[in-house]
């Protein structure tokens, strides 16, 4: 009998969990280790918008576009309907010519998008106060509670024999003749044939014993979570001063700016009250609503802003998968990286995002 390759996945966020399940589905013996909370760090503090609306290069658009499709199929297969909604997005962060330009760019890329006037917006979002004159509807997008998605994936993994170890920090990797052979961890050594570092923002600290460093420009973001309210909004709403959506459980998730950095001079609780106040001005019929969590998250952002996925240069058997927009990308990245590691099949979608560009 051929021995199953033993794969160690470092990090249990949505990216690590997706890679782990994809590897197991291809027949590998998989162990996921997590130093902190299962479900990941960035994944617990994310807005979770699944989209290809924003991509500064054509290659990145193609990756994101394919990723949205993959996520749809993945959420149907895993029955993720408690943590993912495919409600589409209404976007009016910009106005006038900038809004028109954004729409033209989406159409030029063949992306599903519709230009809506105020009267049409009012029909599909009847509880929206002061509807904008114009907005863009991108109907195929969705949003997920990424930590819950990661936990659901890990549950699927363990149900079919995969193993998950929390409270376990990988501190170093050992190599034998240029190929990884084991990980040193806070709870002892773990032998393995292949390792994936899906360590999110922590990737900037590297791993002890590895002389390759991934340059990062991590950014901070503020996300609010509210108590549950009756169903009030139908889409992910990206307005000019707040973005928010309603989850399956009726709670709202809101954020201030989509992909930027938190102003270092801001006081998080004051900013949270401010964002909540902005949100309240947007809706008619809002019942009493409580702020249940103010999250300050660190976005894992490689230096050039693009994902980093593939073999770490000069280190046999060691792979990395670190990215922003990891919620959008995780299920696709999981499948592509697993086939690369286990079936030697390289996807052209990943070629522009290799670690060796650094
Ligand atoms: C405020 C905010 C808003 C965002 N909005 C969006 C959005 O709308 N759409 C979108 O697609 N993306 C969004 N993102 C980005 C997205 O959340 C991340 O790209 C994604 O969650 C990364 O997942 P991950 O599994 O790589 O990392 P994480 O979820 O951070 O998981 C990595 C895990 O690795 C563990 N780890 C690290 N080092 C070790 C070690 N040595 N040993 C053991 N374990 C280790 C960490 O403890 C952590 O739990 C947002 C992020 C933030 C912070």
3D architecture notes:
It is a single chain. Helices cover 27% and strands 27% of the residues. With 358 residues, it is α+β, with helices and mostly antiparallel strands. It folds into 2 domains: 6-46 and 147-216 and 303-357, 3-Layer(bba) Sandwich (FAD/NAD(P)-binding domain), CATH 3.50.50.60; 89-139 and 219-299, 2-Layer Sandwich (D-Amino Acid Oxidase, Chain A, domain 2), CATH 3.30.9. Strands 6-7-5-15-16-17-14-18 form an 8-stranded mixed beta sheet. A 6-stranded mixed beta sheet has the order 9-2-1-13-20-19, covered by helices on one side. Strands 3-8-4 form a 3-stranded antiparallel beta sheet. β10 and β11 (179-185) form a beta hairpin. α1 (14-25) runs parallel beside α5 (146-159), α1 runs parallel beside α7 (326-343) and α2 (58-77) crosses α7 (326-343). The longest helix is centred in the N-terminal third of the chain and has 20 residues, at 58-77. Bound molecules: flavin-adenine dinucleotide (FAD).
The unique ligands bound to this protein are: flavin-adenine dinucleotide
Largest sheet: 8 strands, mixed
Question: What is the radius of gyration computed over CA atoms, rounded to a whole number of angstroms?
Answer: 21 Å
Q: How many runs of DSSP E, i.e. beta strands?
A: 20
What CATH calls the topology of the largest domain is: FAD/NAD(P)-binding domain
Number of helices: 7
How many domains, in number, for the residues?
A: 2
Order of helices and strands: EHEEHEEHEHEEHEEEEEEEEEHEEEH
Silhouette: globular
Fraction of helical residues: 25-40%
Tell me what the CATH architecture of the largest domain is: 3-Layer(bba) Sandwich
């Amino acid at each position: 009998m051929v021995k199953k390759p033993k794969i160690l996945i470092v990090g249990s966020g949505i990216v690590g969990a997706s890679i782990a399940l994809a590897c197991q589905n291809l027949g590998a013996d998989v162990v996921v280790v997590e130093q902190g909370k299962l479900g990941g760090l960035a994944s617990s503090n994310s807005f979770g918008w699944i989209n290809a609306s924003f991509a500064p290069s054509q290659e990145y658009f193609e990756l994101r576009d394919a990723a949205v499709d993959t996520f749809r199929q993945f959420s149907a297969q895993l029955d993720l309907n408690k943590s993912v909604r495919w409600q589409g997005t209404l976007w009016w962060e910009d106005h006038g010519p900038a809004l028109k330009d954004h729409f033209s760019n989406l159409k030029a890329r063949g992306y599903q998008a519709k230009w809506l006037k105020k009267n049409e917006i009012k029909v599909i979002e009847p509880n929206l106060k002061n509807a904008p004159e114009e907005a863009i509807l991108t109907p195929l997008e969705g949003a997920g509670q990424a930590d819950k998605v990661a936990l659901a994936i890990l549950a699927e993994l363990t149900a079919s024999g995969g193993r998950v170890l929390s409270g376990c920090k990988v501190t170093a990797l050992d190599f034998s003749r240029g190929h990884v052979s084991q990980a040193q961890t806070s709870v002892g050594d773990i032998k393995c044939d292949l390792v994936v570092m899906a360590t999110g923002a922590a990737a900037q600290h590297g791993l002890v014993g590895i002389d390759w460093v991934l340059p990062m420009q991590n950014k901070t973001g503020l996300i609010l979570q509210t108590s549950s309210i009756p169903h009030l909004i139908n889409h992910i709403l990206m307005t000019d001063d707040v973005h928010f959506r309603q989850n399956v459980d009726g709670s709202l998730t809101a954020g201030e700016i989509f992909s930027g950095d938190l102003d270092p001079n801001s006081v998080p609780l004051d900013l949270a009250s401010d964002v909540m106040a902005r949100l309240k001005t947007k809706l008619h019929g809002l019942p009493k609503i409580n702020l249940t969590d103010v999250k300050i998250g660190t976005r894992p952002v490689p230096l050039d802003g693009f994902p980093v996925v593939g073999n770490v240069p000069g280190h046999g058997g060691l792979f990395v998968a670190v990215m922003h927009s990891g919620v959008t990308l995780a299920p696709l990245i999981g499948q592509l990286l697993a086939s690369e590691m286990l079936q030697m099949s390289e996807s052209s979608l990943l070629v522009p995002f290799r670690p060796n560009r650094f």
